Each structure stands twice: as C-alpha cells, then as structure tokens.
TrEMBL record:
It comes from Thioclava nitratireducens. SMART domains: LMWPc (SM00226). PANTHER family: LOW MOLECULAR WEIGHT PROTEIN TYROSINE PHOSPHATASE, LOW MOLECULAR WEIGHT PROTEIN-TYROSINE-PHOSPHATASE ETP-RELATED. Pfam families: LMWPc (PF01451). It is an enzyme of class 3 (hydrolase). This is protein-tyrosine-phosphatase. The keyword Hydrolase applies. Keywords: Hydrolase, Protein phosphatase. It catalyses: O-phospho-L-tyrosyl-[protein] + H2O = L-tyrosyl-[protein] + phosphate. Residues 5-143 form the Phosphotyrosine protein phosphatase I domain.
Length: 148
C-alpha cells in the first residue's frame, strides 16, 4: 500500500471510537497526521468518560480530545478516511461524494463487520470496542508503517 500522509478517523459522536482509533494510529504512525471527527459529533465535548477509563486501563490517554463535526473540508484534508461502520461510509459519500474513494472501514482487514458504538452501554461494550479498534489499528499499521 502506498504511503499515507494523513488519516481521518470517523464515528458518530467523536467521543468514543474515533478518539481511540486516532490515538492508537497516531502513536504507531508518528510520520502520519492522524485526526478524528464525527458525523453527528458532540462538538466541543471531551472523550467519553467510560471509554477514557477503558483506554487508560490499556495504557492509552484520551486526555485533551475535543470532539468536532465532520465536514467535506476536513475530509478533503486527509488522504484516508477510516470509518467505524458501513453506514458512516454511506453518510460521508452522501455528504461529500468526491471523498468516496478515500473512505474505508476501520476494520477493513478484520472482516469488515464494523465496530459497534459502545456509547451509553456498560463498560464491557467499551472494552469490546477498544479491543476491536486496537486489533484493527494494528492491521492498518502493518500495511501503512514504513518497512524497516
């Protein structure tokens, strides 16, 4: 796969799944600009408290995250747009058809089933989402990281 210089990670609220995906990819791909947004973002909110707790259990900090709304302009600034569910891909393509070719599922290399939204669910749902995002992130990194 060609070198990718920028990745946008998208979910709905930009407070649970996409901040985790963003931080995991950013840590593993330091030469790549990685940000996140939501198609129905809780604009200005920090990361979800339960997801922050789960991330911390796994050595990942979501401190300082600020949710923002996906726009065609934000999407256009990124070479690759990774979404958590097939519906997110449809929504981005509806809002910004010119970006359709850049949009792929975050779990593309893990079966493309999508990663369920744990928002307002018990902590177990957050742990499951974190585990799935982490595995999918490793699969992307193995394809995008420069071979040493």
């Amino acid at each position: 796969m060609a070198k990718v210089g920028s990745i946008l990670v998208v979910c709905v609220g930009n407070i649970c799944r996409s901040p985790v995906g963003e931080r995991l990819l950013a840590a593993a791909l330091p030469e790549c600009k990685v940000t996140s947004a939501g198609i129905g973002a809780v604009v200005g909110a920090g990361a979800d408290e339960t997801m922050s707790e789960v991330a911390a259990e796994n050595g990942l900090s979501l401190d300082g995250h600020v949710a923002r709304q996906f726009t065609a302009e934000i999407g256009a600034e990124h070479e690759l747009i990774l979404v958590m569910e097939a519906g997110h891909k449809r929504e981005i393509t509806r809002r910004a058809p010119q970006l359709g070719g850049r949009v792929m599922l975050f779990d593309q290399w893990m079966g493309s089933k999508g990663i369920a939204d744990p928002y307002r669910e018990p902590i177990e749902a957050h742990r499951k989402a974190f585990t799935e995002i982490s595995a999918a992130s490793e699969a992307w990194v193995s394809r995008l990281a420069p071979k040493r």
